[in-house]
Design a protein that fits this description.
about 325 residues; mainly alpha; Annexin V, domain 1; about 65% helix; globular
Length: about 325
């Protein structure tokens, strides 16, 4: 198989190439500043990367060095410097979550530690807390981790927790600081929390987007039964895989550049024909024909694996939308979400 063209290298692969080029010591120092998901993704990319061409290495290193040449931490806003540096190193998709962690959550070390824990451990730690506290914690976590934490709770409390997330309208600085301090003490650290906008309809919808399909359906039915207006608001803000068909052609092309072919192949196993055709028409003729053939020849796949691939693509979609690179349609209307 021929090498990838340098311009086609995805953000996480660019990061892997950069770290491999820097050497163990310097790479380790950089990894210390990454969040758990970034460490896992970049580490996996480094472990599975083979046959990196000279052209690829030169393109990645050249792009990174060129960016740094024009920037310095002296005389510039440090937040802007961090954003530009990380985006250059990792690409907009992978840098997005890390930027939020560094710039928005840097003063909340206690809560921040939860992002390094597996969902079951987080659920166990907060299971005896008041549902409102649990809702605040879920609002602070990334949606995919929050979805897994929510799924670890008994079925009879999930609806209550998610409704509290949906109706949460931020939290007072003193209350957030107290919660952060309590958690921080458990991790033997110290922290001074700052106010942040947590919770809300969109946070609840993001979490619900990423829970298991059967769990999502039950929670939505229960929420709608209790508060039909709230249920409709959450539903209107949800974006599911089938809604990709509402993205314009340019947006689909942008998304496809960020999605691995094997991930797309698995995700499309559960898609209807209309969405498949939407994808095919936004690929080159040769690439579309190859994907069609691969779909026809692919062996049966577990539904959970297909849903997992779809959720990963939705995560990329939301990141691109947040960056203003694509516009989401679907049940949410014409808003940028």
């Amino acid at each position: 198989m021929p090498d990838k063209q340098p311009a086609k290298i995805k953000g996480v692969e660019r990061a892997a190439i950069l770290l491999l080029a820097l050497g163990e010591k310097d790479a380790a120092e950089i990894l210390k500043h990454m969040g758990p998901k970034e460490v896992q993704d970049v580490g996996l990319a480094m472990a599975t990367m083979t046959n990196v061409s000279t052209a690829q290495m030169e393109e990645v290193m050249g792009s990174f060095v060129s960016t740094l040449k024009g920037e310095t931490a002296l005389g510039l806003d440090s937040d802007d410097y961090i954003r530009n540096m990380l985006t250059s190193a990792l690409g907009a998709d992978k840098a997005g979550g890390m930027i939020d962690r560094i710039l928005l959550g840097r003063n909340s070390k206690g809560l921040e530690q939860l992002k390094w824990m597996d969902p079951k451990s987080v659920a166990e730690m907060i299971r005896l807390e008041h549902p409102q506290i649990i809702a605040i914690v879920l609002s602070f976590l990334d949606p995919d981790q929050a979805a897994d934490v929510l799924s670890a709770f008994p079925e009879n409390v999930r609806t209550d927790i998610l409704m509290r997330v949906a109706t949460l309208e931020g939290i007072q600085p003193a209350a957030l600081q107290e919660l952060d301090s309590i958690l921080d003490q458990q991790f033997s650290g110290g922290s001074n929390a700052k106010s942040t906008g947590l919770g809300g309809i969109k946070a609840a919808a993001d979490i619900l987007n990423l829970v298991d399909g059967a769990v999502e359906s039950k929670i939505m039915d229960q929420i709608t039964g209790i508060d039909q207006e709230l249920g409709q608001e959450i539903q209107d803000n949800m974006f599911v895989f089938e809604n990709l068909i509402d993205i314009d052609d340019r947006g689909i092309q942008t998304l496809l550049r960020e999605v691995a072919s094997e991930q797309l192949l698995l995700a499309l196993r559960g898609a209807d024909e209309a969405l498949k055709e939407k994808i095919f028409k936004n690929m080159s003729k040769r690439a579309a024909e190859m994907l069609r053939d691969d779909l026809e020849a692919a062996p049966p796949a577990k539904l959970s694996d297909v849903e997992g691939a779809q959720k990963e693509i939705l995560t990329v979609t939301r990141r691109l939308s947040d960056a203003g690179e694509i516009m989401l349609g679907g049940s949410g209307g014409e808003e940028f979400v």
